[in-house]
Write a structure and sequence with these properties.
15% strand, Rossmann fold, 2 domains, alpha/beta, 11 helices
Length: 344
């Protein structure tokens, strides 16, 4: 199988603007070995394929692996150019029957008499509802927690989460936030307008790491307060990590991208961009990632996607709101824990 992949790759024209290749291995759970934007020439791809080792695992969950590829490989943050009209091709190798039935059961999202106006129907369709919520949570827990995102937790680099929310979550946030804290992630929260103060405080590392604002126009003034809190927190500065005048940090922004904040999303992006400008990304010290969420979470870019502050700021300013009616902050936090931070 490995020889076949190697031979296949050698026949491709791998360049930045030509062919791109990603490789995922799966059994019980999938694992990305490299993404579509990891390599821009053929040789490192062939070398990586040659060095592959058998993943192992007792169960074969093909359905979950397919969903993983759809959500995390065929995405702009991983190098997919689907939006540019570039053909998207998946080649699946399997040696057995799948043990999962990932999305083959039907669920009624709403009945013929549930909604009485066109706008209500459009909102329901846009927001959607979780399909097999238990399976989706298992998927996030089991499949997205990977070091390939660039987290440097094993090196002792502080892990920082900044959550910005414009409303109250409809799912439980306590357990996911506790898991993040147990994993060593320091959480700061910014709640705006309809966000619940008690909820924001329960998610944050401590209540005084939760910042509450009346309007999105108040984001700019709070930037310095939040920045001071981040750089002075005892768990975000660790001995032996200082290089020059800067301390290494992995900083992840979890942004409310629901329809409720769509009209204010530019202000959110401006806030994040100005915040990023205060950190040292260019020298490989600080790393930044952005995740949006509403009823589901989606990766905009990973910790290891961009190597310069200018690139991060440009990516942030080019963000578009994810959309979706309900907020599932707890689910997003659990997504983040497993996607952004290396395995423990």
């Amino acid at each position: 199988m490995r020889d076949f992949v190697q031979t296949f790759v050698e026949k491709l024209k791998v360049e930045e603007n030509r062919d791109r290749v990603s490789l995922v291995q799966y059994s019980t759970e999938p694992e990305a070995h490299f993404y579509l934007n990891t390599y821009t020439t053929k040789k490192p791809i062939v070398d990586s394929v040659r060095s592959l080792r058998h993943k192992g695992g007792r169960l074969l969950n093909t359905g979950a692996a397919l969903q993983y590829v759809k959500d995390n490989i065929f995405s702009p943050s991983s190098g997919s150019r689907r939006q540019d009209g570039v053909p998207q091709i998946l080649i699946l190798f399997s040696g057995g029957k799948s043990n999962d039935e990932y999305s083959d059961t039907a669920e009624v999202n709403f009945k013929l008499d549930t909604h009485s106006t066109k706008d209500e129907i459009i909102d329901a369709v846009k927001g959607g509802r979780p399909l097999n919520t238990g399976e989706a949570l298992d998927y996030v827990k089991n499949y997205v927690f990977t070091s390939t995102s660039g987290s440097r937790l094993v090196e002792g680099i502080p892990q920082i989460l900044i959550l910005l929310s414009g409303g109250k979550s409809e799912d439980d946030v306590l357990v996911p936030s506790q898991r993040l804290k147990a994993a060593g992630i320091v959480i700061f929260t910014v709640g705006v307008k309809d966000a619940d103060e008690a909820e924001m405080q329960s998610i944050a590392h401590s209540p005084n790491q939760a910042f509450m604002l009346r309007e999105f126009s108040d984001l700019s003034p709070v930037k310095q307060q939040l920045l001071s809190a981040v750089i002075s927190h005892k768990d975000t500065v660790r001995p032996g990590l200082v290089q020059g005048s800067s301390v290494k940090r992995d900083i992840v922004f979890l942004l409310d991208g629901s329809d409720d904040v769509r009209s204010k999303f530019t202000a959110i992006c401006d806030f994040v961009a100005k915040f990023v400008e205060s950190f040292d990304v260019d020298q490989g010290k600080d790393q930044v990632a952005v995740v949006q969420y509403s009823n589901t979470a989606v990766m905009n870019f990973n910790l290891n996607t961009y190597k310069t502050g200018d690139d991060v700021v440009k990516a942030v300013r080019n963000l578009r709101p994810k959309g979706g009616r309900p907020q599932y902050t707890g689910t997003a936090l659990q997504f983040l824990k497993q996607w952004q931070v290396t395995e423990i």
